Amino acid sequence: MGKRLTQIATRTGDDGTTGLGDNTRVSKDHLRVHAMGDVDELNSHIGVLLCEEMADDVRELLVEIQHQLFNLGGELSIPGFELLKPEAVLALDEALARYNAQLPKLQEFILPAGSRAAAQAHVCRTVARRAERAVVALGAVETLREVPRQYLNRLSDLMFVLARVLNRMNGGDDVYWKSERLARNGDG
């Protein structure tokens, strides 16, 4: 692969605009830029999660997700372009089924806590939801394929499941919400 980035500080954004992949310039608060930024932030949080101890299969899955998120960011940066394939959504569906099958059924709500890796997976989940909202907002004003939205929706679900998997890695468990209402009713 040839060199793609030759200069990082171009100063072209000093006027409050940024360049898209098709060489058009838009305001830095454009919905497309918000979506691109949220996807980039999600990818960065997954990078932080990858600093934690985890099973090799989970690590490999997260690295593949990072590549797919880079594809998604590239697709968002070029209006009308397609990089993220429907097969990427299917891969998340398969991972969801595989990892969810290993877990006990949820009986209560859980808190975004536990091990550091699990807590970071929950951060990834919430950022994925924000990125999904940004893509939905962009799709309300511009034509977008459904694959990016579907991918982010599945990914947030997968990050929830992986948080539960990571909490159990060394014999731990989910951190359950202690509902005052359920406790008063004798249910919690």
TrEMBL record:
One of its GO terms (molecular function) is corrinoid adenosyltransferase activity. Residues 1-23 are annotated as: Disordered. It catalyses: 2 cob(II)alamin + AH2 + 2 ATP = 2 adenosylcob(III)alamin + 2 triphosphate + A + 2 H(+). It is an enzyme of class 2 (transferase). InterPro entries: CblAdoTrfase-like (IPR016030), CblAdoTrfase-like_sf (IPR036451), PduO-typ (IPR029499). Its EC number is 2.5.1.-. The keyword Transferase applies. It comes from the Bacteria. GO terms for biological process: cobalamin biosynthetic process. Keywords: ATP-binding, Cobalamin biosynthesis, Nucleotide-binding, Transferase. Residues 8-165 form the Cobalamin adenosyltransferase-like domain. Homotrimer. Belongs to the Cob(I)alamin adenosyltransferase family. This is Cobalamin adenosyltransferase.
